[in-house]
Hints:
The complex is a heterotetramer, with two copies of chain A and two copies of chain C. Chain A contains 17 helices and six strands. Chain A is α/β, with parallel strands linked by helices. Chain C has helices at residues 4-23, 31-41, 46-54, 59-88. Chains in contact: A-C, A-D, B-C, B-D, C-D. Chains A and D meet through helix 1, helix 2, helix 3, helix 4 and helix 8 of A and helix 1, helix 2, helix 3 and helix 4 of D.
Amino acid sequence: MRESLIDIAYLVSAVLFIFGLKLLSSPKTAVRGNLISAFGMLLAVVATLFVKDIVHFRNIAIGLIIGAVAGGAWAYLVKMTQMPQTVAIFNGFGGIASALVAISTLYGAFKIPEGVPLEWNRAAVGLSIIVGSVTFFGSFIAFAKLQEIIKGDPISLPLHKLWNLVLLISALVLTGFLVSSGNVNFAWIIFGVSAVLGVMLVIPIGGADMPVAISLLNAYSGLAAAISGFVLNNYGLIITGSLVGSSGFILTKIMADAMNRKFVDILIGNVTIQMTEEAFAGVQIKGRVKKTDPQEVAILLDSANTIAFVPGYGMAVSQAQFAVKELFNLLTKDGKEVYFAIHPVAGRMPGHMNVLLAEADIPYDKIKTLEESNSLISETDIAFVIGANDVVNPLARDSKDTPISGMPIIEVDRAKTVIVLKRSMRAGFSGVPNPLFYLDNSYMLFGDAKQSIQEVAKEFKEYRKL
Amino acid sequence: MRESLIDIAYLVSAVLFIFGLKLLSSPKTAVRGNLISAFGMLLAVVATLFVKDIVHFRNIAIGLIIGAVAGGAWAYLVKMTQMPQTVAIFNGFGGIASALVAISTLYGAFKIPEGVPLEWNRAAVGLSIIVGSVTFFGSFIAFAKLQEIIKGDPISLPLHKLWNLVLLISALVLTGFLVSSGNVNFAWIIFGVSAVLGVMLVIPIGGADMPVAISLLNAYSGLAAAISGFVLNNYGLIITGSLVGSSGFILTKIMADAMNRKFVDILIGNVTIQMTEEAFAGVQIKGRVKKTDPQEVAILLDSANTIAFVPGYGMAVSQAQFAVKELFNLLTKDGKEVYFAIHPVAGRMPGHMNVLLAEADIPYDKIKTLEESNSLISETDIAFVIGANDVVNPLARDSKDTPISGMPIIEVDRAKTVIVLKRSMRAGFSGVPNPLFYLDNSYMLFGDAKQSIQEVAKEFKEYRKL
Amino acid sequence: MVDPVTVGIIIFVLALISGFEVITKVPPLLHTPLMSGSNAISGITLVGSLVAAGAGEQRVAEILGTLAVVFASVNVFGGYLVTDRMLRMFRK
Amino acid sequence: MVDPVTVGIIIFVLALISGFEVITKVPPLLHTPLMSGSNAISGITLVGSLVAAGAGEQRVAEILGTLAVVFASVNVFGGYLVTDRMLRMFRK
Ligand SMILES: NC(=O)c1ccc[n+]([C@@H]2O[C@H](COP(=O)([O-])OP(=O)(O)OC[C@H]3O[C@@H](n4cnc5c(N)ncnc54)[C@H](OP(=O)(O)O)[C@@H]3O)[C@@H](O)[C@H]2O)c1
Ligand SMILES: NC(=O)c1ccc[n+]([C@@H]2O[C@H](COP(=O)([O-])OP(=O)(O)OC[C@H]3O[C@@H](n4cnc5c(N)ncnc54)[C@H](OP(=O)(O)O)[C@@H]3O)[C@@H](O)[C@H]2O)c1
């Protein structure tokens, strides 16, 4: 009876999670959705505390307080641009918690549920440790790279993939030993081997590719929770863990598709693109690069009526969104039509640009999708490319041989004038050179995006005052 | 072990059903979706035959053969226009099968699964009988009315709803007796009372309202299957039954919304609209009705460039779709632009018009949605209204006091000329008079739609030959 | 420890959610075939009928079971065939 | 008769399907909050940690459980708060 009650409570929580995720599908209901989901979590925790056979509340209280304070402070203090690494590390914590719970069963923390074969239980313990430990250590590396605690460049050993395979197989074989012997030492060895595997999987991934890895690790942490559900025969964990698992895999798939990469490749760790020389054999870049300066840009802006802002990863890096908002205010006050052209994979996370623009209070109705933007672009006087590169690269449309070929782009080359803000002529995320910079109608404004925008705004104000 | 195997087989079937339903979301994959779903059914049946403790295969063989032959022949011979009643009766058969299975458990056909309280099992038996019997007898009445075996008009007793309530409560009280006594006679009494309830629920529904009732009965038959899943502790039945249950309720909700009716009203049996005098107090119809004839229509068609066909329930009644196709061929061969404007609730089932037009091989790209049609309509020379009424009634847009107010319409009144094919000046499904018929730019072509269209086509051919 | 009734309820709720999410994606164009397709699926009750008909328990149970097999299989065979007929008309 | 492992598998599959169907409806605009919101939910493993920490069995189990509680609750509290912060920026 008590067991049934708690199962029903978990079911209600799971339904609340689903409902919360559903409400996430509109900006208007999203905040409420998150609260509902949090309420589901509260219900699950309370039900557990009341109904399960819990005798030592002191440990729990200490653990919860430490966790709540640390997590709360972290969430409160972190900058919005540090979101990817924050999600990564929280995620890792979920993973290691699952692994620790699994190990604790071997120390007798739970009775094996009636009807579950001992071997099955131990196999689930082994898998939970593997997935949990890979999640934690992988997430930790991702965090460290993004936070620039360790170097962001891809680091890779000779025969890297072979080593990964060896590690994975070892972990599985050790799980076999654990199943047959029940010896807890195997659990710790599995934990260690999986830790190395987690590090090895993420260390060869470049900083720019990290969001794909994080999203995949997110799926893994869900999977780890679901597997610990099998360990504890806890249906609440199974349902909720698999929900998170699906969600993570779908997001990873969306990013993979957007980057024109195979999902399976990413699953086995082929995240960072290997650029080949031949890929560019067919690329011929003609034209001349024209530099411009803030003053000239201000004059151009003054005579323009319709202006498109096309932000990309560079806007996130330089945190230019507030400066952009200021320039936007200046221009609209002046009666100009300004819109934001948002590519679905601009930046490094799905919806990345939307988060930044929302942070800077850009009115929602000024944000246009890829399709809307492309239908407006030929009537646009100035397209202002703010730290974007791949998402405006005409080669994606015109050539068949590059890694980004076939990806839809925001066709700024069809605007009357293009102004590109970036620090150098370097390629973007994909490594593909960009012929846009050489077009007759395009001008480069070199420098950090935030600084450039601020200078343009200053010049524009001065120019208008004269 | 065997039990687990069969549970897994049922799970696979359920996944195949879900996948099949998913493939139904595009006309290109729908046939395959149905086959996949049928394959899931085959798997479930084979798994049952192989794995469960079945000793008497003879009964089963006889039952299956009779069912397959009867069902197969029926499906093969039925006319497409008889689809609603066919779905209704098949549906009823599913319901009664669930009820019979539930009753058979009281005769010892199944052992009560370990861990299931006897009371719970009997309560599930009672509910399964109620829902199954209501489904069967309700569906039978729906079938009989649509097939015109009994009169289609609403038939209702004094205090009809009170009687329904009394019947429902009796059935539930009897279930209580069944739970406490286990006496099988109660099961048969429940069956009988529910049969009366099923008849009473559907008998006051007019023929035109029947599709809503059928869709609701479809949901009930799923529910009956799910409840027998609880009786037999068969998770396959629970999963699949609840799938069908959701599907039925969603379709019912869609129809309810389209008809501007409350879902809850329909659930309690308030299907047929009660028209009040006051509803029309505000309706003032001005203008004069102008009759036309096939010859005149042929001449009008000849001078038109863009023609919209707007079919409704009348096209289904008179089976005019093939004649329409012929006229369509004539007109397009003549270089005219012809499109079909399809309202989402034209006809009497969701997607009704699409089925008929597909049957007559109308090219898919000529079929326009409500929104598309309304953006084309003001450039349309002739709107040909074929047995539609409510879906083109301007009052839905212009007045606030009718039962259809607020329903979006195909705004044929904005076309240059409107030709309305129907048999009389009578109102449509909703009973609301239609001011469209009195407009200056509209002409009535009275008569059966099929005949009228054939005559128009004949006149058109003759006229062009001169 | 595992209570079959609770498990049944959990499965019921999850299946309702899956059903809801899948069905809301089907466009109105295909609602009639959807109605008849899901009607065919509701013949799943055939699975229960088969056991009742063949369990070899009491005579009445067998008769009821066999009747149930007849009804349910009309639902299944008829339902799938009629849906197929309807859908083939769309495929042009 | 009810095999807990099989039941677990059934529930797992149904939950995967529900998750898939619900998530595919979220527009790209909200994918970042979705990532962080579902990350918060993955802290559900806290529920298991609580039992391990408080079951009063072996000492090692308790220590491991308490550690797990700390980690999982950082995930839960941090995850929900950070998602809330992000989403509030959208609500204007
Ligand atoms: N959104 C997602 O879900 C997601 C996930 C994973 C990968 N991706 C990939 O990421 C790419 C996104 O395209 P994107 O156009 O947004 O980015 P991008 O192609 O990576 O280009 C960003 C540009 O910003 C410039 N930049 C960097 N820091 C800057 C600063 N402080 N000031 C000014 N400019 C700066 C860089 O040029 P300089 O170095 O010369 O300054 C760089 O060329 C796509 O290839 C996409 O496939 C997206
Ligand atoms: N599609 C759905 O899912 C659904 C479900 C339930 C209810 N409904 C309701 O059904 C209505 C559908 O609108 P509708 O415009 O298609 O139909 P309608 O409003 O019912 O009008 C149909 C018209 O067809 C005419 N008609 C009947 N038999 C005919 C024949 N043999 N030849 C020529 N004309 C004939 C009738 O006029 P005469 O008698 O003068 O010939 C009638 O006015 C809406 O009110 C909707 O809410 C729809």
